[in-house]
Write a structure and sequence with these properties.
The complex is a heterodimer. By secondary structure, chain A is an all-alpha fold. In chain A, 73% of the residues lie in helices and 0% in strands. Chain B has 18 helices and 20 strands. A six-stranded mixed sheet of chain B has the order 6-7-8-3-9-10, sandwiched between helices. The chains are: A mainly alpha, B alpha/beta.
Amino acid sequence: MDTTITLKIPHIHLDPRTKLFMVFVVSSIVLMTATTPLAWVLRIMITLVPLLLLFSEGRGISALCFGLLYTVALLLMKFFLSTQSTGVVMALLTGYCGIVVQFLPAMITAWYLIRTTQIGEFLSAMQKMHIPDGLAISLAVLMRFFPTIKEEYGGIRDAMKMRGIMLGGGHASKMIEYRLIPLLFSCVSIGDELSAAAITRGLGGNKKRSSATELKLTGIDLLLMALFAILAVAFIIAKYL
Amino acid sequence: MIQLQHVNFEYKGSAFGSIRDLSLSVRQGEVILLCGASGSGKTTILRLINGLIPHFYNGTLSGEVTVCGKVIAQTGLHELAGIVGTVFQNPRSQFFSVDTDGEIVFGPENIGLAPDEILRRKAQVVQEMDLQPLLQRSLFQLSGGEKQKIACASVAALFPEVILLDEPSSNLDWKAIGELRRIIGQWKAQGKTILISEHRLWYINALADRVLYLKDGAISQEWRGDDFFSLDPETFRRLQLRPATIARSFLNTQKEPVEAMPSTDPITLHDYYFCYEQTQHLFRRHLSPHDTKEPLALSIPSLTLPYGRVIGLIGHNGAGKSTFLRCICGLEKRCPGRITLGGQTIRGKHALSACYLVMQDVNHQLFTDSVLSEVLLSMDSPDPERAGEILTSLGLQDYAETHPMALSGGQKQRVAIASAIAANASILLFDEPTSGLDYIHMCAVASLLSALSAQGKTILVSTHDPELLTLCADEIVQLDHGQLAAQYPLDDTSLPRLKAFFEGSCS
């Protein structure tokens, strides 16, 4: 019997551990500043990974947009910005480039992890890595909550449109307040009901949790992990030695 | 099987739903229906049995509850997981996984069963409940009825001996309630002990062995199942319960006489077309029904509605009721629809100010820290005097300074209506305002809708409750597969037609 559970068949099915490792490597390397040309090359290579992940999830257009933004940001940083830049425009540009170059790749990788990992799969991966249950369950709840927040936020936006308060009546603080307060209230009540439903079905007991899906590292997992490990080591060598 | 001995319970900080000196004993294989008004303690009893009280909800508890010989107060919730299963009211907030397969095996995984055993149980539950078409889907894309079915499956996969259902039909349409009835019947045949707390009673007819009527936290009356369902309609009304059969919903036709509005031009709606792309969130622009290859989720070329009346919108889940309401009030930008109202044509964004939708989840519509400022926020120029008048007309004058989130569900709904009136909306749309309400509160909503229409508001209300329609609707609009299936004024001659719709849709 085929026990792999997929919402939408991805082109490659990776083990959650591989994905976690990818998130770790991408986010740490992309956040470090590259100093030598070799380090730059390695950093750009690592940034290409989220691009490929977007493609594998059928988000080709998003991938192209991201690629374009990234190139522009990179060129701007190379030719226009330096540590001596001053002025409002320069400050804004620096902010934009920083977000695109340093945060977006990590965010895309994390999005991929959340989108393609089932909660049961994730919990058993955490167990195999001997992560304490408390932490694993908290992270799982977080994953479960992303789509909920999206749903609730959609409802709140609709309500704001009807009231004509999308712009908060001109006050920036109100704009945030009107979005956040109903969102917090509904998330708290959903969270409460969710926990009640989960613990009546035995979550958080002292028995060792089992899993219907046996996790196994396949060839592609090992290959990717090895590749990322090599890239990470090479980057550190290029940067510090 | 289940024993409650002189149990008293009060939630921390609230007397709502407390239990007073309640004793109850349930035999194995019995099916028990708990009925009574909101806050009478139905849910509290279920929480005492599944251990959420005292392990999850805080409060003062005395007396002893035992299930299968285990004293609940001294048994961990994870130990009870394989014995007591609970299906909750809200299908949105009771699943932990994101996919259906993961949800069915969630319980068995938690109690640490071997993988083969988990898969065997999953296969059995899937076969019994006919779930094959729902496997390998995202839970976020299922309808309320489908979610509730998965919730039942997830509970059943633990093979509990006791199954509790807490107002499981609140968010379901009639077809889904029929499925729920079948599942409960199956559990009964398997010899499970079942307790159901419910406001909608008709679907439990012939399933319940015993019926308990709760009042103020105590069992005030008790019947055998057959005796209860053959009580006369007058008794039901006196006990303030919803009717025991669908047919009886139609006995109650004492619609409150509303002063007829001076004849005003009717409201006409034109070109309401809408189409979802494969996923629910990506829309494609479709301006006419001719250039699309996919079936339209909504296709209403034109519809005329009487001004200043209550119009009931009926149809199955997925018939396009909610979509239609969202299109009318201008929330779906892709919809080309336009409204003609008193000689003016309103379209697109401008519909947002002429119409106001009171959502099913009113929590989304409350933004400020007091009821009064909520009303003021809706006005173009704040006018505290008029706001005061509006609040008084809705019976909210005593709550002007209260935080909206501290109000009850019905009061929140009225605050949302108050802001709609303040915004000068002339068309008010309600998306299932009575789901999960008890009989008294449903009557309150009905008379409020009638009163609003007497003030010259046109009300369009989507609902699955025939009782609500017989209490306040003047006209019926029926949708089917996104198209107008029927439209007729509701009076004594057309009542059988409405009755036929509801009876037909649940068989």
